[in-house]
Amino acid sequence: xxQMVNGVKILLVDDEPHILQFLxxxxxxxxxxxxxxxxxxxxxxxxxxxxxxxxVLDVMMPGMDGFETCRMLRKNGSPVAIIMLTARDEVxxxxxxxxxxxxxYLIKPFSFEELxxxxxxxxxxxxxxxxxxxxxxxxRLDDRRKEIVxxxxxxxxxxxxxxxxHYLVLNHDIVLSKxxxxxxxxxxxxxxxxxxxxxxxxxxREKLKDKEHTIIKTIRGSGYRVDLL
Length: 229
Fold this sequence. Notes:
By secondary structure, the chain is an alpha/beta fold. The protein has eight helices and eleven strands. It has a five-stranded parallel beta sheet, sandwiched between helices. The protein has a four-stranded antiparallel beta sheet with strand order 6-7-8-9, covered by helices on one side. It starts with 8 loop residues before the first strand and ends with a strand.
């Protein structure tokens, strides 16, 4: 069992019971938490309750097929990574899946080792802090300890400051509007003013000794961007 993946949840969706059983046994043996669904409708209900990190989704299913299931998962707005399985090596299928929001695809038959590698790649890309510390430029993020080290110094951050800086650093080199930051840090149901973002940005700059705004840059009329030194 790989202890590094404890807590990582995977939903398997396929209408072939022997494939579900084989993959569930293998992934459980690797340390993942696994649930299965035999069709698209069951997958949607299970995903809502289970909140998986990764969905391994077969394309060819009766009723709601994998394409429609993928579209519905993306419509719900969850950050889940979607790996689609297709029995046909057709460019149109791959393009359609990726266009609807799939992150990767595998062509049947595939090796279990390849699926493991694809799952690992998606987790590292979309959920980097699941595996403990992540180093990005001068920042070291430790999501389990809720700590951020900058240039070797541990920053003394409030929980909200931690969440904000964590969000900015993970999205480095991207201009983030105040509205986007509010959604990502405070949540969609936050009823306060956008000016709260300015207040916390100012506090973070003080703690980073960023008087010249070279770390957290203000992009006039657009928002903020963290540049890694």
